[in-house]
Amino acid sequence: MNLKNLAHKIIIDSIYVPVYKFFYENKYQALSVASIEATIDAIVDQKISLSRFGDGEFKWIDMTDQGSYEIDSPELRKRLLEVLQSSNEKVGIALPQAFRDPKILTAKIYWEREMGFYGKTWLANVKPGKHYYNTSVTRPYMDLKDKAVAKSTFDKFKMYMKNKTVLVIEGNRTHFGEGNDLLNGCNKVIRLEGPAENAFESYDSLKVNAKKLIESQHPDLALIALGPTATILAYDLTLETNVQSIDIGHFDIEYSWYLDGATKRTAVAGKDVNEVGD
Is the pLDDT score of 130 beyond 80? Predict the structure, then answer.
């Protein structure tokens, strides 16, 4: 980071972190957001599906032009809002750990700044009386100051995969569970690949092909790693096929970092890590 960008960041932090503290902290923390432990337990014991809303999803809703791997569109915004505001009990909606308590995160200042800057719009789209799950269930390692929860989360996931037929829907450079043992206990792994970028532009064909595989292969569950497309597809597949569908996000990359004892985000051989530059 050059000096100009650093100075800009310091100025922005000095404005919006206090805005968060004064105007929004109590409102965010009044939301009912489950712990990471309670979220993995709900996936395993209650067999809920999961659609996750991190800062990226909220920014896609706001159409803030993140310059990311998924372009903004009115349809993407519409569908994300539909899922976020749904009340179907089969699909758990997950919100950021930062909404619950940013102090346990390594990126505490980042989240306080973002919640201060976007506070009014982000809070307008969630329901104070609704129970939410925790997006950090798929990020139980790198973002946490205390990484003790990572082992139990990964272990419970691997145990849950035992003897299951699993449909993995992923970007064509993701390779979820390859090169590690996350899916070693599965009875069978079926894969459906979508575009690594702008997957939502191919949403209709992705959903059609996923439903065909579900009808022919009868998977026990679907794991979906496709950015905001996964958030929506997990919801639709649950309602339309009754198959447990989990927006699994960066879980595989987090597990690779956990195994390596990584202390910062690094490239993982053979896999696309969108948070690490080329």
Answer: yes
